[in-house]
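Fold this complex.
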Amino acid sequence: MADLLVVGSVALDSVETPFGRVEEVLGGSATYFSYAASFFTKVRLVAVIGRDFPGAHLDLLRQRGVDLSGLQVADGSSFRWVGEYGYDLNEAKTLDTQLGVFADFRPSLPAHFRASPFLFLANIDPDLQRDVLRQVDRPRLAALDTMNFWIQGRREALGRVLAEVDAVVVNDAEARMLTGEPNLIRAALTILGFGPRTVVVKRGEYGVLMATDGRFFFAPAFPIESVFDPTGAGDSFAGGFMGVVAGAGTVDEATLRRAIVYGSVMASFTVEDFSLNRLTRLTEAEIQERFGAFQEMTRFER
Amino acid sequence: MADLLVVGSVALDSVETPFGRVEEVLGGSATYFSYAASFFTKVRLVAVIGRDFPGAHLDLLRQRGVDLSGLQVADGSSFRWVGEYGYDLNEAKTLDTQLGVFADFRPSLPAHFRASPFLFLANIDPDLQRDVLRQVDRPRLAALDTMNFWIQGRREALGRVLAEVDAVVVNDAEARMLTGEPNLIRAALTILGFGPRTVVVKRGEYGVLMATDGRFFFAPAFPIESVFDPTGAGDSFAGGFMGVVAGAGTVDEATLRRAIVYGSVMASFTVEDFSLNRLTRLTEAEIQERFGAFQEMTRFER
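Structure:
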């Protein structure tokens, strides 16, 4: 089991879905990522919060053994996001974003984080992602996520950091935007041409595709009749994925594939409730049972 | 190996894609279905053509051993379809449809077709589909396809025939339209409530899902960088699917799953060229090789 470092956001989310609404609950990319990954490996978190951030939220992460010594507490307000989902639940409509202290976030790694063999750069400014890469000893696997905002506004900076990571985790719309390729297979192969050896494309209800050295792997999404709140699904996926890889300590194809499926398992739980509510009730046995369900749903013989 | 009967259309297609155009080439649901199925079992075809239909087209089907004794030749013009695809190649834009003799098509089964243990009712008027069911001895598996035109215009008639078949093969848009459910998992389960024991939902580039007795199976689509012409992909899938089931002669879960993958294999070849051009060059070795590629793309271990 190897240490997994994540740099991203810790936030307060207010979300409305057709099934209800919540105010200022625990959210943020690094939060979902850390919590999901904590089932598989030791996690270190780097992020920033304001002094208004509820301590009980942090206790949830501490209870999972997440090392919070890289969590900066700054003067000002915590990052707040307000969003809603319609009945198709496919895409969040952002109603308000208050960056607060996140606007001036400069990741600074505690000395004992610098040797982190596995690194995930969640969705932050690509120049900050590159700055984190400068602060760590060469990890065994460095991966990044990004979003349309950086793809459109910081294309060159994003290109530079893409050339320096081993893996990219994006959704299908981002993959198409990043490459200008409507065909997702070509988009994935084009991203490999930017530098990474592995690209993972999240396709929502259609599951995940991974391309590594030109080989493809496809995993479905868990069939869910009622997605309750999709917030955090992608970050939970990434956390499960990277957590399993770091837990194994190796980056061979079999490990990456197992990690894709565990990532899909974690995402499938996250969407069953608001915030991290479902994850905080989750047992190891439930994770293993759902992994078995994925095997059962995809098995066929000649 | 058991006989497989298909009732549908045999047509002349004119198609334009970003990669080229063809005029009055061999098309039609029963055509693609029969040709794809012929690699796996003995096929019987019921359809209607006009006296203008080129004999060479029929020779292609005869060479594959397709029994054409149910092919009616009527006074009038053959069914003609003119369509085009844009760069995303996801949906055909129909430019012209000339039903010709297909407008008065009344399927009439030759006596030796009445005992057909496997039956596929391709996309025709649901009352005609039901009429065919009246003409056959109870088959081991009767399946049907349909389309938005019948879902919107002939909902009640479609409901009647749905209650009498064992399996339904539709695409994702049709499944949603048929049920009013935006969630595809709920849509599939709702269709099972209409009567069939098995529902197969084609999701284009996202592959196929099958629900049988509430169990799900997911298969990806073969990753293709350049779809040349998607015309006939769904019918080729259905042909491969039903062909494998009929070839096995049984309808157990393992056979259905293997059939889904062979169906996906056949569709992946069809889209590589116009009309049936790729299928006419296809070898048994290529089919088996691509089936192996599907196994490789989906395999994972705990």
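Chain A is about 35% helix and 25% strand.
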